[in-house]
Structures are given as C-alpha cells and as structure tokens.
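Write out this protein's structure.
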Amino acid sequence: MKIEVDLYKHIRQMHAVEGVSQREIARRLGISRNTVSKYCEGAALPWERKQPERKSPVVTSEIETFIRLCLEHDKEAPRKQKHTGHRIYERLRDELGFQGAESTIRFRVGQIRKNLPKAYIPLEFAPGEAAQVDWGTATVILNGIRQEIHLFCMRLCFSCAPFVIAYPSEREEAFLEGHQIAFSYFDGVAHYCIYDNLKTAVKEGWGRHAREQKNFSAFLAHYALQAKFCNPGEGHEKGLVENLVGWIRRNVLVPIPKVKDFDELNQLLSARCLSYLNHTIQGRETNVGEALTIERRELTTLPAKSFDVARLVEVQADYFATVPFDGNRYSIPVEYAGKTIAVKGYGHMVKCYYRREEVAIHERVYAKGKTQYQLAHYLRLLEQRPRAVENAKPVRAANLSPAFWSYARLFPDMNRTMVQLLRLVVDHGADKVANAIDKAQKANIRSIEVVRHYLTLNEAIEPLAIAGPRVEIPNLERYDDLLLGGLQ
C-alpha cells in the first residue's frame, strides 16, 4: 500500500516513541497490519520508488557478456565501423545460435549504451614526458579577404605551456615545420607526442596499431621522439590540446582579426601564447611559465642539424622560366630556362635550386592554376628585348603605379625607358622609385639620371674609410725666438 508522509510520521511516532503495538497502530489509523509492519521499523520509505528493471528470459548472462564485449571492442574501432544492434543480433544468431527476436537484442543494446559511464581518469605527467599535438581551423580576414586558416597547436603536458602557429594548409610540410618551430620555442623536445590518427602521420591503422608515414618516421628518429596515437573518436585522450584549440578561437580570434599576412597573424598568436605563461591554472601553486622552466630541464636536446621538412620535387623549367609545383608555377631567372630544377615546398614558401644553389624563393600559393612571377628574374631578358615590356606578364604582375608608364611615355623610346625604370625598381623598390619619379615630374625634368639622383639623395652615404696623409702641426713659438734674437 502506498502511504503519504503524514501517515508514515504517525506510524513511526507511535511505534518508536510511544511503544504502541502494530495491531493497535493499525486499529487507530485504520490501515492494514501489513502496511504498519512494512513502515514501522523505518526500513521502507514512502518517497522511494523502486524502478523495476525489464529483464528478458532469453537474454542470459552469456548473451549479456557477448553484447558488452562487442561494445568494448568498439572503443578501438573506426567511427564508421562500430557494432549496431542489428549486427550484434546477427553475430549472436550465427555464433551462439540465439533463437530470440532481434528487437529484444536491440532493446538491450540500447539500455547498455545508455548506462555506460561518462567518467574519465585524471592524468599526471612528469616534466618533459609528453606533449599533445592537434590541428584546428578558424576564420580570419587576410589582406581584406575572409578565409579559413589552419592552426597547428602543441601543448606540453606537465607545464601546459601552449604553442600555436597558423598555416594555409595541413599538409605534411606544414605539419613537420610546425613541430620544428615549436621545438625551438620550447627549447627542446618532449619524450613522446600524442596525436590523432592524422593522414600526414599515419599510413594505416589507428591507435596502438597505427603505422607511421615514412617521412614522419624519419622526422621522429631525428628528434629522438616517440609518437602515440589516440583511439578513434576518443578526443579526451588529448584533452589539453583540444582545450587549447578552443581557447585560441575564443580568446584570440574573437572578433575575427584583420591582418595583412600570415606573419602578422602569427605574431599575434605568439604574443598570446607568451602572455599565457603568466597564467596560474586552478589547483596549481606555480604559473605556467615557472612550470615551463622546470620542464625545459627535462626536454630532449635539439639535434645539431635541423630536419629538412620540405617536399622535394625535381622538374624541368619551361622556356618561360617557370617551374611547376603542387598545381602552380613559380618563376626562376631566365638563364635557368630549360634546366632541371629542384623545388622545395615549405609551409609558407617555395625555394628553387640549381645544382644545390638557391636561385629563387617565392611565397607559396595554395589556389590552383596560379603563376608567381618575380620581376628581377626577367629583367636581363627585357633589357635585350625592350619591345616586349608593355605586354610582359612579369611586368603586369608587379602591379606598378600608372605613374611609371606616364613618365616613360614622355621619352622618345618609351619601351627602353620603362626597362630602365624597372631596373631601378629591382634595385631600390617600387615605392622609392615612384617617389623619385614624382619629384622629377614636379621639377619638369625628363631624365632617368635625375630619377636615379633623387633615389641616391635618400640613401645614407657612408664615409670612405681611407687614411689620408698625416701633417704635424708646427711649433710657432720658434718664430718668436727668431724675432727676439734679431732685435738683439
């Protein structure tokens, strides 16, 4: 019988305090002796309700154990290759000869999944023991264009010191370069790093079964670094760096920053990482910077030579003096047209080599089908063929001020004059030459030499370090002696 609290109060009072018998309590309160017997000792409480657990006679302990083992194995399985209720039913039917209904198994699988505990074990790391690495994405306004950027994040597990650098892509060269810069920032290497199953790091498999990419394996060997990979879908296994990604988005990239280029963005990120060293994490006695000082003593020393993280390809330059790399083309000096060039792609730049000599360096572009020209690479050929200057792609790509062309048209040979101005641009920079042209036009002077003169006026002239003849100062008092002697 269900009773209310007031009735329960009377039963307990009469039994425990007044010593009334159960029979008399039942008579006085007008309830059954069974109800009095149930509540008088205080073992049963009227406000507690037992939830009956639905049990199926066909779900034996053997079936229950099989279901739990399937769900346990799913913890190390890929996200899209986990057991469904239907698949568990099929396995029970085929492997254990289960004769019950599929709906019974699916219902029990749902119950078990719902009751799985969401608890985590707190972790502790020794100084220098481990770091966690991850990528994150964010939106910035880069040179006036809104675009998505990729954040390479590394965090030491003992001190929680953060490092973040932005890249246009998550490709292997950016991934490895991010490590290198982080190692230099921390002044050492942790004994092992914890990763997701990144394609740039993992060739096949996952978790402890992962097989590393060949280049990543060589990188780890060079820095005496071990790699540990998380189980699929288990982001809490690297919770420190997961939190770092969110912290950067919320605290550094809100509101959306407007920056000129990646250098300016990375300076902003670096400054915030440095300022975080003054932060004291709740429950700790020292701040992050003080803990980092302790941790640095235990980090592995950096190797004497840096690992070359670039992606290298050998290609033949075409007769337009450009070389292909990753879906784009980059210019080289015209004297290397038709030759075999080694091209190295880094996270932010592309370098070109001929017989181990660096011949060109470009900012890397990730949009496909683009060509990066440098005016200096074509100037020698333009000086030989000045008539091509007006339609030359490298000249148009330089985006020179219309003032250059206006001034060049004042001369009888506009093309040759424009090439001479381009030579000044390569030697002094477009802004300085434009300023010198403006001065010459205001003075109503048409002369390349005058433009060159205005350029040199703005440059500091260093004194020549030439030792001249030494002249001793004469002693004029001797003349006084001669005059006095003559008068005597």
